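Format notes (please read before filing issues)

Several people have asked whether sequences and structure tokens are stored in separate files. They are not. Every record keeps both together, in the order shown below: the sequence lines, then the token lines. Line labels are part of the format and must not be stripped during preprocessing.
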Amino acid sequence: MDQQSRRAADSALAGALAAIGAGAYVVDEKGCVIAVNARAEHLLARPAEDLVGRDAHDLLHRDATGQPIPTSRCSMRQAFHAGRTAQAEGERFARGDGTLLPVSWVITPYDIGGREAATLVVFHRDRQAQEAGPRQEPAAGPLTELERLALLAQTTTQLTSTLDTNEALRRLVALLVPRLADWVVIDLITERDEVWRTDVVHADGETLVRHDELQGPMPPVPEESPMPLSRALRGVASALAGAKTYQRAPDCGITAEQRRLFEATGIHSAAIVPIRSTREVLGALTLGRADTVGDFTTADLPLIEDIARRAAVALDNARLYQRQRKVAETMQNHLLPQLPHVPGLEMLARYLPAPDASQVGGDWYDVFRLSDDATALTVGDVVGHDLEAAAGMAQIRNVLRAYAWYQQEPPSRIVERLDEAITHITDVPMATMIFARLEQADNGHWKLSWTNAGHPPPLLVSRDGLTRYLSDGHGILLGTEAHNSRTDATAVLPPGSTLLLYTDGLIEAAGHSLDEGLSRLRQHAAALAHRSLTSFTDQLLRRVRPADNDDDVALLALRTPRETHAR
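Then the structure lines:
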């Protein structure tokens, strides 16, 4: 997890614990406290710094005489190691002032946003502490107050730790069924004010079954209908619905679809609440019971409404993020150029943004014709994965284009001029790049000349699968202000060969050396040499790009004709 994602996860965790109206703390996979809320600090008479990093069992768990409890006899520790939800009454925690605190607690596995496994403990003062042993499993029936608080905390953390709408909905469904209902139905209002039934899920035991035949587009939201779903989609109110609610003649299309849902699922009781953010109504959440005995009551609505509000925050954030990504993606597409047509050559480029970035970054490629009819090729990388990096990339690319067009000089001299200018006319702190000239000789062969400013070397692949890295012409990266002279290198590209220029996001992986990445690229490029250039490029990205890649990738591939034609 990168630092930005970790900070977001920590912030979500702190917010979730702060929203719990009882004492709460989270432990890591070793049982050490990693977060605690203010209520827990007060109940335990211990500041957070005395709790975080300590083993919760050793620090807190005591028997009736105040003595530490062996882990083999600790009900909470057993549930912790089993990774299951449990609760107990009449137990004791050691306070910082030396007294014992009678407590009731609930413990449950807890998602903290893609980091290590974690567990949530929610507790409050047990004013009627009993000497009877702890109750290991929650009893059937309505949720206890502690279970409600734990569910709300889980909802907050799990939903706010993702900015993907589909993943947020998947997590929401998993939290609700079968814990609260047999069926969960989610209707969302799209940005074009259309209603889409995105999820209809049934809990078959512990297995969640999606019913695609009941999902899809819905009729428009009626302005006046008094029926429960229509009112929820307008954000008017929550409501309960029973088996008879939708048996009468439907008053609108939404009601007709809801009638079809009840008939198909056998739901005899439902709670229907709006999914409403601070800005707008995003949809409606329906929880239904078909197999479970007992109906929803008005006492159930506040919990479901609270869950829906948390879902609305997550969905609203995801939508805003997706809009930002779309704008950024459009910007990036305009920054990255269309490849020119060069007779006799095949060319292809790909750009993949960093997974956790805003769809833009400092990696780029460029191909353009020069005033002497040669073709310029460049691939580079400006530090950063944001709009600032993208703006810096555009500055460098434009300056490079101007120098290369007007100064008919070797690549090394062009890059030297660029390096001299970079600290004065751009905001770029540092960058790497390869700049090359490609021209056709009189004998029909294609000649490449290039210079390398701290960038991974180009890879040349023959049509028979022989590979070699073009490691000559290497110099220091741009922006160091060293102003060392640069060197040029040349190579003749064999007929039918493929030249690959790329950025380091293709080969770098955490915990692996650069040499390992280069070796992996060479191996797969050789195996794909017989493929079409499109297949070669796309398969190379799939096979070589590290699964945990957190960097942009720009890739430029060109292939020479299989036969040479003298000019």
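For reference, the curators noted about this record: The chain has 14 helices and 24 strands. Residues 301-335 form the longest helix (35 residues).
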